[in-house]
Design goal:
Blueprint (H helix, E strand, L loop, with lengths): L2 E7 L2 E7 L5 H9 L17 E4 L2 E4 L5 H4 L3 E3 L12 H8 L9 H14 L5 H7 L11 H16 L3
Parallel strand pairs: 1-5
Antiparallel strand pairs: 1-2, 3-4, 3-5
Helix pairs in contact: 3-6, 4-6
Length: about 160
């Protein structure tokens, strides 16, 4: 059974006629075309599908599209502006925190949520924030370095 679902994703409005029990990740990728959010384990274990719902990190593979209705949703595509990378995205590039890149959108979204809540995290707080995200390439140190660099750049207002 399909129903009309109203979504606000990256400040854009969408009205879709879909099965309300469909995984939100599938709707993002297949119906809306936002493929930056990655499909990894489909069990909420890897964090590759992390998006922000009302500013909080959520595994989009574990939520139903109906649960996204009337929420403020941010995906990786919602960060940069006019072909310019967001400060967090740039820090990941500058610190070499992107290897294969598959897990990067999830890590970047977790970083965004952390820095909105805590603009000056410690290394331990950064490590804790990404504890639900898996990476097979970087060894995590470069990811944490990028998180702390993004925090510094945001605090200092550097472009």
């Amino acid at each position: 059974m399909k129903m009309l679902i109203n979504l606000c994703i990256n400040n854009d409005k969408y009205e879709l006629f879909v099965d309300p029990a469909r995984p939100f990740l599938d709707v993002l990728r297949d119906e809306i075309g936002l493929t930056g959010t990655k499909k990894g384990c489909e069990e909420g274990e890897c964090g590759a599908c992390t998006i922000l719902i009302d500013g909080k990190p959520v595994n989009s593979c574990m939520m139903l599209v109906a649960q996204a209705q009337n929420k403020q949703i941010t995906t990786i595509e919602g960060l940069g502006k006019n072909e310019e990378l967001d400060i967090i995205q740039q820090a990941f590039v500058d610190k070499g925190a992107i290897q294969c890149g598959y897990c990067s959108p999830g890590f970047i979204m977790v970083t965004k949520a952390l820095l909105e809540k805590n603009p000056d995290p410690t290394e331990e707080e950064a490590m804790s924030a990404v504890s639900g995200n898996l990476c097979r390439c970087t060894g995590y140190q470069k990811i944490v370095d990028a998180m702390l660099e993004a925090a510094r750049v945001r605090r200092e207002g550097i472009k």
